[in-house]
Amino acid sequence: MLATVGWVLSELTHNTIVSTFGFEQSILGNSDQVPSVLNGGLDKVNPLFWVGAICIAAVLEFVTIQKADDTREREPGNFSFDPFHLSSGNNDEENFTVQESEIFNGRLAMLAITGFAIQEFTTQDAVIHQTPFFFNSVFFHTVSHVVPHHF
Question: Which of 18, 46, 115, 141 is the S-S candidate for 23 at Cβ 3.0 to 4.6 Å?
Fold first, then answer.
């Protein structure tokens, strides 16, 4: 679910970060598009990033396997991180409802990311430029142009 936020934040802030820290090139596409399978640009991402991401995911899963005891079934991706106790209901029925809602929202976020990739591929423009009313605000004043759509 954080990926949907990360997609938009990378389009909004990546070029600023690149220029601030003096990196040589931006990995965003021609129209500030995020690198993806459909947009291309994944070859610009440092291979060490991919190795690190896979290693971190493997370590996290290994830790959950080690923490799982014989009395409960292991739930993939459940790191028991809930500092605000949002997922703990008063009874088993409420816990089940919260878990189902989490799965539903996660699947909805996956559809949103797929929609972002398809939208940018078909229009050849970044999501932030296609929906400027969401991103022209006090916090996100970096979006300065809107490319007209020709379908």
Answer: 18
Please give the backbone phi and psi of residue 36, each rounded to the nearest 5 degrees, phi first: -155, 175
Of the candidates 40, 10, 43, the residue with the CA atom closest to the CA atom of residue 124:
40
CA distance 59 to 62: 5
pTM value?
A: 0.70
Of the candidates 47, 49, 54, 15, the residue with the CA atom closest to the CA atom of residue 31: 15
State the virtual CA torsion across 60, 62, 67, 69 in degrees, nearest 10. 140
pLDDT in tens, the chain (151 residues): 888 888 888 888 888 888 888 887 778 877 788 888 887 888 888 899 999 999 999 998 887 777 766 546 666 666 677 777 777 667 778 878 888 888 899 999 999 999 999 998 999 988 888 887 777 665 555 444 444 444 4
Strand-pair partners of 36: 40
**Domain extents for the chain?**
2-40+89-135
CA gap 28, 138 in Å, rounded: 23
